[in-house]
Structure formats: C-alpha cells, structure tokens
Amino acid sequence: MNAPFHPRSATLRDPFAAFVCDDATADALRPVAIEMGWQPEKVHKGGLRNAVQTLAVSASPHILFVDMSESGDPLNDINALAEVCEPGTVVIASGQVNDVRLYRDLVASGIQDYLLKPFSADQAREAFAHAQLTLSGPRVTEQSTDRPHMMIAVIGVRGGVGASTIASSLGWLLGETEGRSTALLDLDIHFGTGALAFDVEPGRGLTDAIENPSRIDGLFIERAMVKTSDKLSVLSAEAPLNHPLITDGSAFYQLQEELKTAFESTVLDLPRHMLIQHPHLLHDVQSVVLVTELTLAAARDTIRLLSWLKANAPSANVTIVANRILSGISEISRKEFEDSIERKIDMAVPYDARTFAQAAKLGKPLAEVAKSGKTGAPIIELARSINSAVEAGPDKAGGNDKSLIGKLGDLKALLPKRKTK
C-alpha cells in the first residue's frame, strides 16, 4: 500500500489472507483460494477492523483481502490498515458501496482493487491473478521525462460538429509535431471513430476495460493500445449495438491514471452525454476543446457547456473551435455567435470538402492531409497553443459572471420574430 508502514520482519509472511464479514463472501473466496494454492483456513471472519487488529501483532501476507461492508469510515480504517501492513502488501478491498469517488479515494490510499459485493468467483480469481502479477514483476516503466503530463478533452457541443475529427488530428499533431508520446482515448463506446480515423482495427481493449476494471494496469495498456505511429496509440471501440455497457466510471478513472503513467499526453474524445454520467472524467483535464458550428442550437449548448465547465472544471483552460466553416454560409454569423456566448471563438476551421473526403479515404487524420493548407493551419495552431500553455503552467482565465438565463435571453433575441395577425 502507498502509505506509511511500521517496519516489521517479513520472514514469516503468508502468501494470502482474507478478512470477511459474512459467510457468503467466505464461501465465495475459499474455493478460489484453493485453486490459487492457498490455505482456505486463511479466510477469516471479522472484516476490515479485525484485519487491523490481527495484523498489528502479526506479519501481513503478500496478498490481503479485506471486506469493508461493516466499516463506518472506510477511508479512515484503510489508513489504519496501512499503518500495520508491510511494504509490498497488495490489498484487495470489497464492499457494498457503488461509488466512483470512494473507488478513487481507495486507489489513492494504496488499494489495488475494489470488488463490489456480491462478486463472482471469476472476478475474485482475476483480482488475485492481477495481484500476483503485481508481486512477480515491476510495472511498465514510467515515462522518463520532465515534461508535465497533458490531458485534453475534446467535446462536441452538438452531434456531428466534427469533434472526433479534431480529436484525432490533435492526437496526431501532439505526437508528430510536438514530439509527445500520446494516447487517443475515444469514449464513444458504440459509435467511436478513433480507430477508423487511422484505418486500424479497434480491438476489444476498451470494452474489456469497462467490463473488468481490475485488469487495468500498465501491462494491460501496453497490450490494449493500438499503435498508429511511434508517438501515437489509440484506444477505441465498436461495441455491438445489442451489448449495453454499464459502468460506474471507475474503469475510465483507472484508464486515465494508467495513461498518465505510460504517455506524455492524453487526448479524450469525450461525447457530451458522458459529462452528465461521469463528471469526474474532467478532474485531471488541463485543457478542454469545445467544438461547435455556427447555429442557434450550437450557441445555446455552448453557453450551457461553458457554464457547466465553470462549475465542474474551473481550472481547465477552455478553447472554442468553430469547425467546418463555409465562407458566408452559416445559420448565424460569427459575430452573432460570439455575442451570444459572450466570448470569442478561438479558432475557425474552414471546410474543404475535397480535403475532408481525402482524409477519410486514406485513413489519415485531417491535420496530416491538410497540413499545408488553410484547413490544417488552425488545427496545427491549436496543438501548438495547448502544448505551450500546459508546459508554461496553469492558466486560470477569468470567467464571465453573467447568468445562464441572461445569456439564453440574448440568444433568443437572434431568433426571427413571429408575425402577429
């Protein structure tokens, strides 16, 4: 566990011990323990509190399973456990609370995995196998670099505005022009185009991660990521439409943590509905790119998302990119759009049908195909400016205090007036 420990001799350490709160959990663990070559008698009753009392006077095992079901203050009790465990003990916790915030706090405290009760024998078996892998060898080597990790979220304010096009181009540019090892994580599980943009197969890595968060570690990342170049790897999915994936978000958090270890930058292609379900995804994001179009609906949703980001990701630097702009052809003008959202559009990407089509046919990111033209220039500048801002340090831009209702009122003023009879 990653916490202070009391020094103690490790000569008599058992390979495994469990402290559970109920017979059902004990009955689930004992057969798995036997399969792993451990003594079933090492599954004790008493839960987390008993584990703390027992290990205060005896050597801690190499792999420790603790049941937190009866703990009134799990984090405090886990910290007490850290005080009596020896360095190198791999701890797997279990409980009945399905809360991603608790999962984050437990992982930060040094817990390797958290199994939600009731869990299956396969889940326990996989968690123990993962623990043994952790004990048997070092994790994937961390990045040997002084460059701060960069995490960027690209969000389309409306469907079809081309956010995935910007995300794939941004990932490619951070690798190729900014020299950063980069991961592109496409979180549109059923309809993602992250792999398609580079003409590679998405694989099952992302769906496996969501279904089995306990599998996510450095080795998993190394195997699941699809390399498109020396500097860019993609994790995307095309999950079957009859296969809904239910998650509390712990898998996404764990993925982010491992990507921060394995890469110098991460680009999240983040569908807007994910913000509602999993707002914690933006916890470590330094830069948010809002991709929009020049329409009334997009202006409305840009206002709403700016307000949401101000409340939920106040330290993130927000860049607004207007995509696929046709000169002189738009539902509302750029000035009307900017007046309604009360800030400037940072970059506008002109629409060139031939270039967009060529990128799709070649299976290459738009920025690579259009790097010498007008379409590619603003995307290249976007990557450069984001990289410079992150490497320079946090940029806390001042916000606008005008209420959302007031902004929507201004937006409605752009609507055509109805004729009265």
From TrEMBL:
Keywords: ATP-binding, Nucleotide-binding
Lineage of origin: Bacteria, Pseudomonadati, Pseudomonadota, Alphaproteobacteria, Sphingomonadales
Origin species: Sphingomonas abietis
NADP in keyword set: no
Keyword ATP-binding part of the UniProt annotation: yes
Protein name: Pilus assembly protein CpaE
